[in-house]
Amino acid sequence: MLFWMIAAVLTLGASLAVLLPLAAQPVSGISDADHDLEVYRDQLDELERDLARGLIQQAEAEQARAEIGRRILRLSASRQEQDKKQRPFSLRLVSVTAVLAVPLISWGVYARLGSPDIPSQPLQERLARNLVDNTVDELIARAETHLAANPSDGRGWEVLAPIYMRMQRFDDAAQAYGKAIEFSGSDAQRQSALGEALASASGGQITGQARAAFEAALKHDPANPKAQFFLAMALAQEGRMAEAIAGWTQIRDAAVEGSPWRNAAERALAQAEQVAGQVVGQVNERGPGQAEVEAAAALSGEDRAEMISGMVERLDERLRENPADGEGWKQLVRSYLVLGDEHRARDALSRGVEALGADSEPARSLIAFAASNGLEMMEQVQ
């Protein structure tokens, strides 16, 4: 009953706030117009008295009468226009009916489909229930409440951090793992988990903080597969593909069949093989001959990556000797991009533009080619 009384009062207040302006007849402003008209009449009387006393000439009086007459005509036209704008009674009736219909219909639907008799469920009471009866959000709220009161509970932070990871709250997960390390001590598992959270929070990029966490994990356990995997990924992001492949190969060979990190390493190696194949396709005209291409295809992943890097280096050296080769510069820029080494790709672009002449057609073609591959010129390179 209390619910319905409160709802009725609130509904009445909201309805009146809308109904009163709709039902009221708008102020027409007639009183102001009547006052102005009275003023103009007084001006006409005063004009006649001045004319009778000879204070003004007849011509001046005629001009003054004409001006006052024009003002009276404008005032009359304004009053007529304002009268036309008055809200029709039918429109006000429809508006009032629509406003009244909303709460009536809402109440009817809620009375039939709603559940006004369900008792309130404060968060504190829900958290006090048996853990089995709590939702995931309530369990997290319970843990956060506990940790707010006991911030030095390292075990609590360590339990909460993986839940944050599964919910993709990576920044919160990284903070929780940091707290776990601070209060429970550093070990390989906590450090590698911290690095993974930091890498996930940065969109997969291995930042300096993430790298430091993985390196700390390897100090505790040199065979930690998670730290090894992500450090190899960091090498690949730096364009050091041969070293990255060596790292993933080590994980694959050391892990048992079917283990998650072995599967992750195999996927990374397959992707690295695909990248290496793309580079072969990019440099096969100006880099190695057909025999070298076939030999590269037969090599293991690590050896193949080293061979590809050597092919690209030889192409780079050839362009230093013959810098007028516009197509060669395109091949070099593209090769470095495929290898993931954007820094060297940008350096090759700058050197190529400088060698070809910034205003030349080959240089403009090189710049356009680089832009089509996602590499823009630095501001200082014109």
From TrEMBL:
Chain positions of TPR repeats: 154-187
Classification via Pfam families: TPR_CcmH_CycH
Xref: PROSITE patterns: TPR
Domain (Cytochrome c-type biogenesis protein H TPR) ranges: 128-253
Keywords: Coiled coil, Cytochrome c-type biogenesis, Repeat, TPR repeat
Location (main, coarse): other
InterPro entries per UniProt: C-type_cytochrome_biogenesis, Cyt_c_biogenesis_CcmI, TPR-like_helical_dom_sf, TPR_CcmH_CycH, TPR_rpt
SUPFAM superfamilies (UniProt xref): TPR-like (SSF48452)
Subcellular location(s) of the protein: Cell envelope
Keyword flag Repeat: yes
Coiled coil: 30-64
Alphabetized NCBIfam families for the sequence: cytochro_ccmI
UniProt-recorded name of the protein: C-type cytochrome biogenesis protein CcmI
